[in-house]
Amino acid sequence: MSYSWWNTIPEHLDPTIATVLGFPLRWYGLMYLVAFSLGWLLVWRFTKKYKIQAMKREQLDSVVTWLIVGVLLGARLGYVFFYNFGYYINHLSEIILPFSFNGGFHFTGISGMSYHGGLIGAFLFTSYAIKKTKLDYWKSVNTIFLIVPLVYTFGRLGNFINGELYGRVTESPIGMLFPLAPEKPPVLRHPSQLYEMCFEGFILFGILYALWKLFPKVRGHIMALYLIGYGLARFFIEFFREPDTHIGLNTLGMTRGQILCSAMILSGIALWAVRVYKKNHSR
Q: How does DSSP classify residue 18?
């Protein structure tokens, strides 16, 4: 069977930029650096351009530093608890160390990060940092969540370059050949990483930004809207994404990601309701 240039893109991508002193430098790690730098810049520019609140650079530096710690720690622990607890409970050192001691000592890198865990970690650590720096809590949180979709796109781009988190088998010409897929030779699969990058990233940002610009009263609910919007987009894209082989589907035919997204959507609705209730009863 002959394939187009589009179908074979993953086969020509090398996840490693270079190897320095025996340690590989990967595009995925670079995507994190770009994402955090862009996030810092956009929060600063939005805050100043739209005069959201008085903010010093030192305050933003502190908030972003704590946010980075929360994302990395939360994403790692989220993967351990949400996706592979049975393995890591017997390999505790591999939770935080980029080495494996199975069959000898060898470098593995930190393999396995959970978006939902990163979100929880970022929320907890950022909330602490905002209160510590004495910034306005809701103005800060809603500005950050307005920017999150654009920052998120780099993570999914990193997944695509790695050839991981690919989609389910398809006969559609939009499918791609992922070398890490179990079939040999590989078959066409949905590039679900690109779907997520597009819908959970660019499109979600466009919707939130449009609402933020057109309806000033919505600005206090951006966090809730993000939780609902991301949860819905990810829930439906999971139908195209290959379920984790060691988890599969639950009794309702849902993936682990869909279960977590359901909780995310309900959390967003609850947050909106509580915020509206408090506002109406504080007058």
A: E
